């Protein structure tokens, strides 16, 4: 089961992973192809998952053993108190010193073991996700060349860089829009609403209308069809009336005033100093994602160094599969474009054939 690694902290929250592909078993052929391409990486992950599970189970067994020793000591202490009371004797600290020491040591061991956290790696989920990327090219780049520091120090620095790059991506995504782009979008929304609130004047422009006998007669009672009439129930709609468009009509009738008020409100609330233009945001997000991916790969390289040294490593719950399995995401395939049909160009010097009139003599 994946874990949530709080940035800058050692706390871990376990949560159920989403179904990535399917909950079904992998076929033998797919598993063989996957092991052929990702065998060393999957073997390392499996070994670490087993090691973490063994350490977690050993820690659980220590807690259970300490709890049992504490329970037995408490039971003996209660029995001793009843015996002393029954015989009218006074129970002193010297009499309970041994049992008290057992209880104290058990409490300390339980508290110490309860604080320990162990990484959790769901091999079933990893295998399902690995089946999807088994044909991706391997990522062969090495990191920390010439760095003589301990792997744990390398990992700490790599984690700091990754957190900084993650923050940079958050800035690129969450930064507000520039006021100019916001005003443009706001006016577009107003124009769409004004279009819905525009009354229909066709009834005013009609000079004649047809009566029930199908004959034209003078239109002596011209009408304007306001959006308000669309919200009333008709024979076709029954009781299911449409939404009243009074607000849209108000925007249509006072478009300039409403647009000016909206622009003023946007400018008052704008934060253009920290804003990003719409045209610049996609490139900034793409660059930040590329930097974050590179930082994640460097951290994963240090993660595996630490695991080979016997140090447990906590990964974020949303760790990319291409980083974990050391593969490169292939570039998107270009969609084929159908060739354009050749356009025939008329010859200006060619004689013009006129059709003969069949009624001519």
Provide an overview of this structure.
This protein is mostly helical. Helices cover 54% and strands 3% of the residues. The chain has ten helices and four strands; from the N terminus they run E-E-H-H-H-H-H-H-E-E-H-H-H-H. It has a two-stranded antiparallel sheet. It has a two-stranded antiparallel ribbon with strand order 3-4. Strand 1 and strand 2 form a beta hairpin. Helix 1 packs antiparallel against helix 3 (123-132) and helix 4 runs antiparallel to helix 9 (281-308). The radius of gyration is 38 Å and the shape is elongated. The chain starts with a strand and ends in a 37-residue tail after the last helix. The model is unreliable at 4-24 (pLDDT under 50).
> Which stretches are low in confidence, meaning pLDDT under 50 for 5 or more residues running?
4-24
Give the integer mean of the pLDDT values.
Answer: 83
Instruction: Give the number of helices.
Output: 10
In helices, the fraction of residues equals 40-55%
The ordered string of helix (H) and strand (E) elements is EEHHHHHHEEHHHH
Global structural class: mainly alpha
Radius of gyration (Å): 38 Å
Distance between the termini: 95 Å
How many beta-strand runs?
Answer: 4
Strand line-up in the sheet with most strands: 1-2
Q: Main sheet, how many strands, which sense, barrel?
A: 2 strands, antiparallel
Portion of residues in beta strands equals: under 5%
**Overall geometry:** elongated
């Amino acid at each position: 089961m994946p874990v949530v690694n709080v940035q800058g902290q050692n706390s871990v929250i376990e949560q159920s992973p989403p179904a990535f592909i399917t909950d079904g078993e992998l076929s033998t052929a797919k598993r063989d192809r996957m092991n052929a391409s990702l065998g060393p990486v999957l073997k390392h992950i499996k070994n670490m998952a087993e090691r973490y599970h063994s350490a977690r189970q050993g820690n659980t067994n220590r807690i259970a053993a300490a709890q049992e020793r504490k329970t037995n000591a408490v039971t003996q202490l209660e029995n001793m108190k009843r015996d002393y009371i029954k015989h009218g004797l006074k129970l002193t600290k010297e009499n309970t010193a041994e049992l008290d020491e057992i209880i104290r040591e058990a409490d300390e061991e339980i508290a110490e073991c309860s604080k320990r956290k162990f990484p959790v790696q769901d091999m079933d989920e990893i295998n399902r996700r690995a089946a999807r990327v088994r044909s991706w090219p391997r990522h062969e780049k090495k990191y920390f060349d010439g760095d003589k520091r301990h792997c744990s120090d390398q990992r700490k620095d790599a984690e700091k860089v990754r957190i900084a790059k993650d923050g940079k991506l958050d800035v690129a995504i969450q930064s507000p829009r520039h006021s100019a782009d916001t005003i443009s979008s706001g006016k577009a929304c107003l124009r769409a609403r004004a279009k819905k609130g525009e009354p229909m004047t066709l009834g005013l422009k009609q000079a004649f209308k047809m009566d029930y006998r199908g004959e034209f007669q003078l239109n002596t009672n011209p009408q304007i069809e306001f959006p308000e009439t669309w919200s009333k129930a008709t024979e076709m709609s029954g009781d299911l009336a449409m939404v009243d468009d009074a607000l849209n009509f108000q925007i249509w009738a006072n478009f300039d005033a409403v647009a000016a008020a909206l622009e003023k409100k946007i400018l008052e609330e704008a934060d253009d100093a920290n804003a990003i233009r719409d045209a610049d945001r996609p490139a900034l997000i793409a660059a930040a994602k590329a930097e974050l991916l590179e930082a994640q790969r460097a951290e994963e390289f240090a993660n595996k160094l630490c695991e080979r040294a016997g140090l447990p490593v906590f990964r974020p719950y949303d760790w990319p599969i291409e980083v974990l399995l050391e593969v490169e995401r292939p570039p998107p395939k270009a969609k084929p474009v159908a060739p354009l049909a050749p356009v025939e160009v008329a010859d200006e010097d060619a004689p013009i054939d006129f059709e003969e009139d069949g009624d001519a003599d």
